[in-house]
Amino acid sequence: MKYFISRLFIYLSVVSIQAQNSEGIEKHSFSVSNLSDVAFKDFIQPQIQESQFIFFGEQHGIIEVGQATHVLYDMARPFGYHTLCIETDAIAAKTITSFFDTEDAVKTAQQLNIKYPFSIPFYANEEDFKMFENVLRSGGTLWGIDQTLMTQFRLNFDYMITHTKSEAFKSKLIPLKEKAMTAFEKTIAEKDFMAPYIFKYDTQTHQDLIAVATMAEEKEVLENFKNTKEIYEYNFRGQYYLNNEVRARLMKRNFMKYYKEAQKVEPTPKVLFKLGGNHAARGLTRTKVYDIANLGSELAITNGMESLHILCMGISGTQNVANPFEPEKAVQPIDASKTLPKEFIDLAITTAHKYQIINTKALRPEARTFSEEVRDIIFKYDVIILVKDAKALTSF
Length: 396
Fold this sequence. Notes:
The structure is a single chain. The protein is an alpha/beta fold. The protein has 16 helices and ten strands. The protein has helices at 2-20, 22-27, 38-49, 63-76, 90-99, 105-115, 126-136, 153-163, 167-190, 203-212, 216-236, 240-262, 292-302, 342-350, 360-363, 372-378, and strands at 29-32, 51-58, 81-86, 141-144, 270-276, 306-314, 318-320, 331-333, 355-358, 383-387. The strands form two sheets. An eight-stranded mixed sheet has the order 1-9-10-6-2-5-3-4, with helices on both faces. A two-stranded antiparallel ribbon has the order 7-8. The longest helix has 24 residues, at 167-190.
């Protein structure tokens, strides 16, 4: 009986502490109206200085994410950061880079978006191009480590047709590009998830193309096609663990290709990643995989450095979620309740400023005093940036 009463007392005490410890979160938080504010710079820059990788986990579709990436990149440059790694494949990253060889990068991007709409994920907007301009005009580089977007095959076929030195390869690509164009038109007209060309890319087609491809880059693009189809098929079959696990493995392999090449110039290349929030988490993610950010965390440690994991989410306002299946619903209200602990949202809502900064790393020693939702997130990210009245990106 005494044991039961003692355990009950401990349980009630912990519940009481958890209920009261919003003060603990507030103690390790501050707010600013702009991320260029000296308070944010003084807080974040020492953490950047000791890091090899910065994983900036974003909520897709809000203007403030690109603006924050711009600020972080400028702060990181003096410490040897000159690479931005994004959630596209390598061809999309090269295509974005090529826009800045023209007089008007935004106009060139708009023209491509007219020719091949929904071919580059997330970046068909003028606001993010200001971020890219800041990186590329300062001599930086873009790495694209993700799968090929399911509606991107048109763009990649076009890229290979333009760059190949093999007439035999080109002759096989041209009719496939036409099939991809027709399939996309059907996708838009019928809002059919299974209409994009990706699902027509079968083993025989893959082998026929590999047989006549002559450049290593061409073979990499084709292998990415194959991997992309596998990843999307898992998703549409409801096999979400495999969907995320295979994608995470692909991102790790693609990253290491870039990384090993960069090591020929510097032994420990530094990289700023701009990825969806889940991909930027340290440890086991919400989708139960060890994603690219966990690789970065371990790699930085082996190199005697740290990795900095930041999550940036809107708590109010709107976001752009445009896709080829429901473009008429491009802008939607933000609902953070399913992804953020209530304690964080309540704190950020009450601030007078636009940005609430939570030093989640500092909360870890007191982890037992917080709710399960708070405990889970504070070990995945070192810093959380919450945005009030977020603004949706404006599509081209």
